[in-house]
Write a structure and sequence with these properties.
It is a single chain. The chain has about 300 residues and is of the alpha/beta class. It has 2 domains: about 1-125, Nucleotidyltransferase, domain 5; about 130-275, no CATH class. About 55% of the residues lie in helices and about 15% in strands. It has 12 helices and 5 strands. The longest helix has 24 residues, at about 255-275. InterPro entries: AtLOH3-like, DUF4371, RNaseH-like_sf. It holds the Pfam family DUF4371. It comes from Solanum pinnatisectum. This is DUF4371 domain-containing protein.
């Protein structure tokens, strides 16, 4: 119990220092949704403001459980959290969210509801988030690329469809790595050769497609091994047929070519995405000027 008391005391003192640094001035809000380990919807709130030293800073305020992710519920949760810290919604001079309809909707979106109370709370769709969505949308306009990502998604579903298959994948990776050590083809060292997983790429997660394809290449032989096992030992004919079909697809020259091509394209955009998220790149942060509220501030 004493550990929880100490943690709560530290949290309260930290928040008190953040609010004191804000000093009742204007601020912007950054909001995102997140599920905890029990899959309960939560809302994370970050304040962006100019501190007493004239520096633009971002400070995490807290996580709030929300019953649903409708715009009205999120607005109520934001206002409630601000009121706890004696912050007025009228001081909001900037909003930053993703591009979901409940966030940026022109009629009933969260940004519209807040702008009705605070007309100067201009909304900016995160640039890095826009970059990811644009790349995914453009890539899928090409039929071969769209088919490629469909096959990758199906492979991830099949190979990661059960704990048994995931364990089989990990075991094959470990055995292959041992062979490479024996032949002296790879070096041992702390932090090297971490286990690679297969997570599904998300259209709204920065760099997730790049990470997925990068891992796909690294453990390609293990993926093939698991599909071959399913093809022979699958519990149903549907599983066996699907594994056989995916094996024929991912072994083709076209699939391998597009895999390496998209990895190179996404590697370049991944660097740009990282730059767009750097704190030191003030010029790339689209609503710094909304918070500074200076006539001579030009971006």
């Amino acid at each position: 119990m004493i550990q929880k008391d100490i943690a709560n005391a530290c949290a309260k003192e930290t928040l008190k220092a953040i609010i004191g640094d804000l000093n009742g001035d204007y601020f912007g809000i950054l909001v995102d949704e997140s599920k905890d380990i029990s899959h309960k919807e939560q809302m994370a709130l970050v304040l962006r403001f100019v501190n007493k030293n004239g520096e633009v800073v971002e400070r995490f305020i807290g996580l709030v459980h929300v019953s649903d992710t409708s715009a009205c519920s999120l607005k109520k949760a934001i206002y409630s959290l601000l009121s706890v810290h004696s912050l007025s919604p009228s001081k909001i001079h900037g909003q930053g969210y993703d591009g979901a309809s409940n966030m940026k909707g022109e009629i009933n979106g969260l940004k519209t509801l807040i702008m009705k109370d605070s007309p100067l709370a201009y909304y900016i769709h995160c640039f890095a988030h826009q970059l990811q969505l644009t790349l995914v949308a453009i890539a899928k306009k090409h039929l071969d690329v769209e088919d490629f990502f469909d096959h990758v998604s199906n492979v991830l579903n099949v190979v990661g469809g059960s704990f048994k298959r995931r364990d089989l994948l990990c075991d094959h990776q470990a055995k292959k790595l041992e062979q490479l050590f024996d032949f002296g083809e790879v070096q041992k060292g702390q932090g090297l050769h971490q286990e690679c997983g297969l997570q599904r790429p998300g259209d709204t997660r920065w760099g997730s497609h790049f990470k997925t394809l990068d891992n796909f290449i690294v453990i390609f032989s293990s993926i093939v091994h698991v599909l071959e096992v399913i093809e022979l030992e699958g519990s149903t004919s549907s599983d066996r047929n699907q594994a056989e079909y995916l094996l024929t697809k991912i072994k083709t020259f076209k699939f391998i070519f597009v895999l390496h091509l998209m990895l190179k394209v996404l590697a370049m955009s991944n660097e740009l995405s990282k730059i767009l998220q750097k704190k030191i790149k003030i010029l790339l942060m689209p609503w710094s000027f909304l918070i500074l509220q200076r006539k001579d501030c030009k971006i």
